[in-house]
Design a protein that fits this description.
Layout: H1 13-16, H2 21-27, E1 29-33, H3 36-42, H4 51-58, E2 61-65, E3 70-72, E4 80-86, E5 89-94, E6 100-106, H5 113-121, E7 128-131, E8 135-141, H6 142-151, H7 153-179, H8 182-192, E9 197-198, H9 202-209, H10 213-225, E10 229-232, E11 235-238, H11 241-249
Helix pairs in contact: 6-7, 8-11, 9-10
């Protein structure tokens, strides 16, 4: 897919959750050309590319997507390897009942191992990627990805290093889901934000925990009754971090 052919115009936020990844890439707003220095600072594995290959990559325009847009969806073909320049992508797995479990997040300078596995295995996506905030990314074409994996050791090392990191994170997630109580996981999730005031809904917390809103709301009400948090409209304030840490560590 040639990024330069993307038409101008921003994807409407209200329609983002209904679009497929291909529609998302085609209808996203083609931004300005990518800043070479910024790209190489975020992805130093590309700095030793042959000039012709780097020039091909730099010819593409950055793709801007709004918060809430689908970057990719289950059972959709992979369009290429996303190089995230700004924003955050949440990768989630959805059950047949509609419940979701957040697998991991992708930040600038990182990328998605599910995308890597799809490209390497020539398979479709088996999870969803959602823009948590406005995104800017550059799409490395699938054919160039394959060439770099075969011929460019720094890029190959970068991709496999990501695999190793994510597998460790996913093993920890499996352990928490299988063996930790939900109140422990909720306390740990609240503390991981490193903020005293969290602008987040009960549904968003439930999605990250792979639970349902009613159970999370009941646990938060219990936390509030113990004086650990105070609850507001789409807002939560941590009032006793030490006791939350004790619950998370049990």
């Amino acid at each position: 897919m040639a990024m330069a052919a993307i038409p101008q115009g921003r994807l409407p936020v209200g329609a983002a959750m209904e679009t497929t990844p291909q529609e998302c890439f085609l209808r996203g707003a083609a931004g300005p050309m990518v800043d070479r220095e910024n790209l190489l600072n975020l992805y130093p594995a590309l700095s030793s590319l042959l000039p012709a290959r780097l020039a091909r990559l730099m010819q593409a325009a950055a793709l801007d997507l709004p918060a809430g847009a689908h970057v990719f969806a289950e059972r959709q073909p992979c369009q290429g390897f996303p190089l995230l320049l700004a924003g955050s992508i949440k990768v989630v797995k959805q059950s047949s009942s509609g419940r979701e479990l957040m697998l991991y997040r992708v930040a600038p300078g990182g990328s998605c191992i599910i995308t890597s596995s799809c490209l390497l295995g020539h398979s479709d996506y088996n999870a969803r990627g959602i823009a948590e905030s406005p995104l800017r990314l550059l799409l490395l074409p699938a054919d160039l990805f394959e060439v770099l994996m075969l011929e460019h050791a720094p890029f190959r090392d970068f991709v496999f290093h990501l695999f190793a990191e994510r597998i460790g994170e996913l093993m920890q997630l499996v352990e928490e889901v299988a063996f930790a109580r939900l109140d422990q996981r909720l306390a740990k999730l609240l503390l991981a934000r490193n903020e005293s005031v969290l602008n987040i809904t009960h549904q968003q917390l439930a999605d990250e925990l792979g639970s349902v809103r009613e159970i999370v709301s009941r646990l938060l009400k219990g936390f509030a009754e113990q004086g650990l948090v105070s609850l507001g409209r789409e807002q939560l304030t941590i009032t006793d971090r030490n006791r939350l840490q004790q619950i998370a560590a049990v």
